């Protein structure tokens, strides 16, 4: 069980930093977070200047994949903390998804700065759904099988 928790913590870190790296290298340096925290001096140094055409894989990765990776890192962190407590875990995962959706809705109504995108909402829902399905069938199923076998 400890190895599984370590796996979830590691993948949470990789997902978080992967999303940050993609965003950092391929997107604008104007982030909402820099209105709260000071922007580090190195932030603008390693940007890859590229024009990304809408509709290809790179545009999906850059504009929606980063949101999915950040949500996935939160889900993995929740799984690492409340691994087999399914009701608590699902409650926090649903709350995390709802926060992301409310953030997008806030952008639509100009309550939160940013650009509303319906595909971000679809990304949040699909990432959460795929993670929950994978957990149920691969992780929880394997744990149940190992316990039944021994």
Task: Write up what this structure looks like.
This protein is about 70% helix and about 0% strand. It has about 150 residues and is an all-alpha fold. Helix 1 runs antiparallel to helix 2.
Task: Describe the SSE topology.
Elements: H1 2-26, H2 57-81, H3 86-108, H4 118-149
> Whole-number radius of gyration?
18 Å
In terms of structural class, how would the helical and strand content be classed? mainly alpha
**Number of contiguous helices:** 4
The total number of structural domains is 1
Low-confidence stretches are none
Number-wise, the strands total 0
Distance from first to last alpha carbon: 15 Å
What series of H and E elements makes up the topology? HHHH
Strand content: under 5%
Estimate the helix proportion, in percent. over 70%
Mean pLDDT: 87
Broad shape: elongated
Most strands sheet: none
Question: What's this entry about, in short?
Answer:
With 150 residues, this protein is mainly α.
């Amino acid at each position: 069980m400890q190895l599984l928790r370590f796996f979830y913590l590691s993948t949470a870190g990789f997902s978080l930093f992967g999303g940050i790296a993609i965003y950092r290298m391929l997107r604008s340096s104007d982030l909402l977070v820099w209105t709260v925290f000071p922007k580090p001096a190195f932030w603008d140094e390693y940007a890859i200047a590229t024009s990304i055409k809408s509709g290809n894989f790179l545009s999906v990765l850059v504009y929606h994949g980063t949101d999915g990776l950040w949500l996935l890192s939160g889900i993995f962190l929740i799984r690492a903390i409340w691994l087999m407590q399914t009701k608590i875990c699902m409650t926090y995962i649903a709350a995390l998804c709802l926060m992301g959706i409310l953030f997008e809705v806030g952008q639509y109504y100009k309550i939160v700065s940013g650009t509303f995108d319906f595909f971000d909402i679809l990304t949040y829902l699909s990432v959460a759904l795929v993670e929950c399905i994978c957990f149920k069938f691969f992780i929880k199923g394997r744990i149940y099988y190992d316990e039944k076998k021994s």
